[in-house]
Design brief:
The chain has 184 residues and is α+β, with helices and mostly antiparallel strands. It has a single domain, classed as Tumour Suppressor Smad4. Helix content is 21%, strand content 46%. The chain has helices at 22-29, 32-38, 41-50, 117-130, and strands at residues 2-8, 12-14, 17-21, 56-68, 75-80, 82-86, 108-113, 139-159, 162-180. Strands 1, 2, 3, 4, 5, 6, 7, 8 and 9 form a 9-stranded antiparallel beta sheet that branches. β8 and β9 form a beta hairpin. α1 (22-29) crosses α3 (41-50). The longest helix is centred in the last third of the chain and has 14 residues, at 117-130.
C-alpha cells in the first residue's frame, strides 16, 4: 500500500506528525529515563508541567485543501497553544486527536488548539474524547495537501516525536506514494 509522507520545511520528512507550541514543549521536556520506565505516560507527565505555558499567535494556511472542517475559510489565525500537522491522527496511548486523518488519502490534517484556562482545556479534552468533528471554538481542524504555520515568535517544535528546537514557521506538504508497505 502506498502512503504519503509529509515534508516539513523541505528539509525534514515526517511520517506521523509535526507540532508547534505545546506539542514541541512536551517532546523537549519528556525525560528519557521516565519514558523507559512508564512508556507513553511520560508524555502525559511532561504535558502537566507545560499545559499552562504561554501561547502564541498562529496563522495556519491551507493549500490544495478542503480547508477548515466545518468553516467557510481555508485559513485559521488565532492565539493558540499548539498547532499539530499530521498524516496520522492518533497520539501515543491511542488518543485520536485528528479522527478523520488517513495515512493514504494524500492529504495532511491539522489541529489548532486554542484553550483559555482550565475550562478551555476541559472543553478541548471533551472534544477530543468525543471525536467531535467541527464547530468547536477552542479547536480548529484543517485538511489540505499543504499547510503553512507561522508564529509571531519562535516556539518549540517537534517532528515525529523528536524535538527540533524553537521555530517561527513550518511549511508542510505531501509527497505522494513516498512510503511503500509490503505485506506478504
Amino acid at each position: 500500500k502506498d502512503s504519503p509522507a509529509g515534508v516539513a520545511d523541505d528539509e525534514e520528512v515526517f511520517l506521523v506528525m509535526a507540532g508547534f507550541g505545546l506539542d514541541g514543549e512536551i517532546m523537549a521536556d519528556t525525560d528519557e529515563k521516565v519514558k523507559e520506565a512508564v512508556g507513553w505516560v511520560a508524555y502525559v507527565l511532561a504535558a502537566f508541567k507545560k499545559v499552562s505555558g504561554r501561547g502564541f499567535t498562529a496563522e495556519v494556511k491551507a493549500q490544495g485543501s478542503e480547508g477548515v472542517v466545518g468553516a467557510r475559510s481555508s485559513d485559521v489565525s488565532k492565539h493558540a497553544r499548539a498547532v499539530i500537522v499530521g498524516n496520522c491522527g492518533t497520539l501515543q496511548g491511542g488518543v485520536e486527536l485528528m479522527p478523520e486523518a488517513k495515512l493514504d488519502d494524500g492529504m495532511l490534517d491539522a489541529v489548532v488548539l486554542a484553550p483559555r484556562g482550565a475550562f478551555g482545556w476541559m472543553s478541548v479534552l471533551a472534544d477530543v474524547a468525543t471525536r467531535h468533528r467541527a464547530g468547536h471554538q477552542r479547536l480548529d481542524r484543517l485538511v489540505a495537501a499543504g499547510l503553512t504555520v507561522e508564529a509571531q515568535r519562535p516556539v518549540e517544535a517537534e517532528i515525529d516525536g523528536d524535538p527540533v528546537g524553537p521555530h517561527r514557521a513550518l511549511a508542510a506538504r505531501v509527497i505522494p506514494s513516498s512510503l511503500v508497505v509490503r505485506v506478504g
